[in-house]
Specification:
The chain has three helices and no strands. With 70 residues, the chain is an all-alpha fold. The protein starts with a helix and ends with a helix.
């Protein structure tokens, strides 16, 4: 469980540092189109759902493996 927490922390830190570095003043046409039509929120929601599902799966798998080791 500690490994998962440390990996999750590392992922969050790397995500935030990448997001900070990637911010710029220019807005591409694709990004502007996605924002104006509201599709960007759908994309973000789908990505968040997938990531949460993966993390829950990993936590569940870790618990099952821990039970088998005992």
């Amino acid at each position: 469980m500690r490994k998962i927490k440390s990996l999750l922390s590392l992922f969050i830190v790397l995500t935030f540092t990448t997001a900070i570095q990637a911010q710029g003043n220019e807005v591409s046409g694709f990004e502007q189109t996605m924002r104006s039509s509201g599709r960007i929120y759908v994309v973000i929601a789908v990505m968040a759902t997938i990531l949460v599902g993966l993390f829950l799966y990993l936590i569940r798998l870790d618990r099952k493996i821990s039970k088998l080791e005992k």
